[in-house]
Amino acid sequence: MKEKKGLMSKSGIFSDAGAQARRVGFWAAVLMLLAWAAFPASWTLPPVWGAAEGGDEAGRTLSPYFVVVNGEPGVDALPLKETRAEVDIAGVIADVRVTQVYRNEGRRAIEALYVFPGSTRSAVYAMKMTIGERVIEARIEKREAARKAYEQARDEGRTASLLEQHRPNVFQMNVANILPGDEIRVEMSYTEILVPEDRVYTFLYPTVVGPRYQRPSEAEGEGAEGWVQNPYLHEGEPAPYDFDIRVALNAGMPIREAKCGTHRVDIRYEGDSRALIRLHDTERQGGDRDFVLRYRLAGDAVHSGLLLYEGPEENFFLLMAQPPERTVLAEVPPREVIFVVDVSGSMHGFPLDVSKRMLRELISGLRPSDCFNVLLFAGGSMVLAEQSLPATAENIQKAIARIEEERGGGGTELLPALERAMALPRSEGFSRSILLVTDGYVSAEPEAFDLVRRGLGEANLFVFGIGSSVNRHLVEGLARVGMGEPFVVLREGEAAETAARFRRLVQWPVMTRLHMAFPGFDAYDVEPPAIPDLMADRPIVLVGKWRGKAEGAVTLEGLTGAGKPYRMRIPVEKARTAASCRALRYLWARQRVALLSDYNRLQPSDERIEEVTELGLRYHLLTAYTSFVAVDSVVREESGERTTVKQPLPLPAGVSDLAVGGMAPMGSAKMLSLARTTAAPQAAHEEAAPGVAGGPDRNGAAEGRNDEAVEPSIVGEKRPAEQARWAIGAITAPDGLDEAEVRRVVAGQIEVWAACLDGKGIAARKGDRVTVRFRIDPSGRVKDVSWSGLSGETEAFRRCLEQAVEACRFAARLGGETLKVEVILERMNG
């Protein structure tokens, strides 16, 4: 069957060449294509329109783009009409049913694609599809098999739905063959544990996925995320579908207060421990921001206790134990901090400079009663002392002076360094923490995760990721298995605040030297396998399986923050069982999947992929390798004529149009604000936090790679064919510098350079050539910018171009010298 797929663009929905010509004008399209054809094949142009399904993506960025919803007549560009959530909270378990309503108000059959977020802790365990009176329960399949079944049903004219996971918190729903007048409801169910922090419970319901960016090279490998090409509405445009949420809160204990600071809600209390929270009618367009409900129990209590679920094949338990009250600072036991610092070649320059500044803050902030040690590692390792030193002024100065001597160089061997740090003699009576400082470009075998997990009872692990392109998979994964916290420092100005956050977290241990046991209770597969010192006022949470009779006890022993013995015994016979306890099987499996996924991001393994797949199939869970598919048995669309529509998303509240598009190097947002003076639209870029386009999760980068420029995308309206455009011509680079790297970095910044060259009083014409010269120092920074070939230069132009060129960043070259580079730019039309 022939399928007609819609091409979403910034100007609407195009299903064929004729519709496209009607939208942009035939001759304008021809001129645009001729202008593109004039460029050599080696030159890369940013995309102007969103890519057609199955089109040639070579050399193009994968970026979100804007859509103006006035596309092809007869096609419903907004098939998602409503999304709502019904939330039941029973004790510490939330069960959520999400309903998405799709309705085709156009005159042609469509396939709808909708990207939406989920909780990072959710276990998605069920889906069903309703068409009129028919209800089709979805089945869990391997990801490839589910997609094949969906596509076969779609091509045969049957209505089908497919739910896939792109990330643990990003999902995609596909619904095929929605006929004109159809209303199709798809329900997804998930569950999660609510773990209070500082005795406050938080339920978060994410509503919209923010724009992301992905380089073409990343899209070719495993884990490619084509969903980043999703269309977005412009800044300030409301969600194009109704949003609703209702929460039935049964806390199991008296509720002190419940509040929602993100949306207007109506709260009705039904007794001491129950409340019904409804979204106010004025918030039906509130799907552009997360819904956050916070509540406290009376007396600031924490819902402690043991839950059991006895299944037909396996039994599961969940323990949540409230820690003791904090003690006064004078009674807090002394701390032992082992600083493990990466001084390898990839840390040379900016990452190591920031590390030194932060370590000065941290080491100088130790109390006189504390002790510490420093382990520096690259290809090998060295320690400041074989036993931790008292935090005297003399020892602190000695450590800082030793760290200051480092310049960075050599390979990176994390596993031997962690082994040595954990084997250092422990100071009795001290609360030990290990603080790892790295950019994440390390030789970090999965054995490093195993080592940290085995040593949980001996020390907490906190991980500081330093640099402009941190390997977050490693930083966050190690912190998770070490039950510590990840910290990321992207810029020089963040070092002091990050150090202060760490000090606030570890200065007041709640419990130390924790040990758990299960006398008379046959527990196994317990997560986590051990408990480190408890540094924050949050409960201890264990999930696991058990065999035999529900008898015996779970015990926890340790020392309070004042160093006094602490013992908690929870009899299994008094454990609570309820209908919600069935969720324990999903929650345990989700915990194990998350752990295996952390390992797999570090080093992919077919065995772990098979294990995650088996867990998904066995426990009926959505994972990266298993999907839900529901297929109607009735053939409803026989013509084969349909249009694929990507449901456009609202930009998250507070996010500007600058978030849609590619990413320019550091400082590009400032460059564009200086350069944007001409009436013609320019590319807009913005350096942003990870998780927003312009600040992607750029993980797993090659060792030694520094901040890397990537190719930008155009945002806003289409660039007219007659608008000036500058292209990169010849590049002169000395030995020791890869010309391809220079071209790649300049390509990522070309729109910002062009904004300076097309404005600021410069009257450039077609065929004009500009030679830009600059030098790159060993750290990869640009300086001494000059140029020739222009006339009529103004002070504003000089300032604009100098700052635009200096914003480029190149890979550091250890022991290298400053290199001179020459780049020729040519104006292609005008």
CATH architecture of the largest domain: Sandwich
The CATH class designation of the largest domain is Mainly Beta
What is the helix fraction of residues, given as a range? 10-25%
Q: What profile does the largest beta sheet have? A: 8 strands, mixed
Question: What number of structural domains do the residues give?
Answer: 3
Structural class: alpha+beta
Q: Ranges with pLDDT <50 over ≥5 residues?
A: 1-61, 215-224, 661-724
What integer value in Å does the Rg equal?
29 Å
> What is the assembly state of the chains in this entry?
single chain
What proportion of the residues form beta strands (DSSP E)?
Answer: 25-35%
Shape, please?
globular
> CATH homologous superfamily of the largest domain?
tricorn interacting facor f3 domain
Using DSSP, what is the number of strands?
A: 39
Which terms would index this structure?
single chain, 830 residues, alpha+beta, Immunoglobulin-like, Rossmann fold, 3 domains, eight-stranded mixed β-sheet, seven-stranded mixed β-sheet, 15 helices, 31% strand
Explain this structure:
The chain is α+β, with helices and mostly antiparallel strands and 830 residues long. It folds into 3 domains: 376 residues, Immunoglobulin-like, CATH 2.60.40; 171 residues, Rossmann fold, CATH 3.40.50.410; 174 residues, no CATH class. It is 22% helix and 31% strand. It is built from 15 helices and 39 strands. The strands form 9 sheets. It has an 8-stranded mixed sheet. Strands 22, 23, 24, 25, 26, 27 and 28 form a 7-stranded mixed sheet that branches. It is globular and about 85 Å long. The two termini are 45 Å apart. 44% of the residues are buried.
